[in-house]
Write a structure and sequence with these properties.
The chain has 133 residues and is mostly helical. The protein contains 5 helices and no strands. Helices cover 73% and strands 0% of the residues.
Length: 133
């Protein structure tokens, strides 16, 4: 099942992707308009990165709403201090997870054409190649 020389973790696609992501190394800040140029060459990957950003923003927004709602509910019904903080934290986590999942289903459907981590790796490699030239 696993190839010779692979570690246990290399059997999992995400860990291989993360190793590849780390292997890209440091990427300096890219110039203005670089993403537009990347989008012309790699439209599917650029679209995936845009959708990932939108899903992330939606997750943060729903998480903040969940934190405020949970904290306010806990405070109103007599839990203050640590109890309200824990309720707000749990509300943020739950709402952010649900919001991020809902946004990713909305933007991608159930099977994205391009994996977001693969798109990020491709973009960083593209920036690295263009910064050398």
């Amino acid at each position: 099942m696993s190839r010779e020389g692979d570690s246990f973790w290399d059997q999992f696609r995400t860990f291989r992707q993360l190793k590849e992501y780390a292997a890209v190394g440091e990427v300096k800040s890219w110039k203005r308009g670089a993403f537009r140029e990347f989008a012309r060459e790699h439209p599917a990957e650029a679209n995936c990165l845009r959708q990932s950003r939108r899903a992330g923003n939606f997750a943060i927004a729903t998480g903040l709403a969940g934190a405020v709602g949970s904290g306010a509910f806990a405070y109103k019904y007599g839990r203050s201090g640590l109890g309200a903080t824990l309720a707000a934290t749990a509300g943020f986590a739950a709402a952010a997870l649900m919001g991020g999942h809902a946004a990713s289903v909305y933007y991608w459907g159930f099977s994205p054409k391009v994996d977001p981590l693969d798109a990020s790796i491709l973009f960083l490699k593209w920036v690295k190649d263009h910064e050398q030239s």
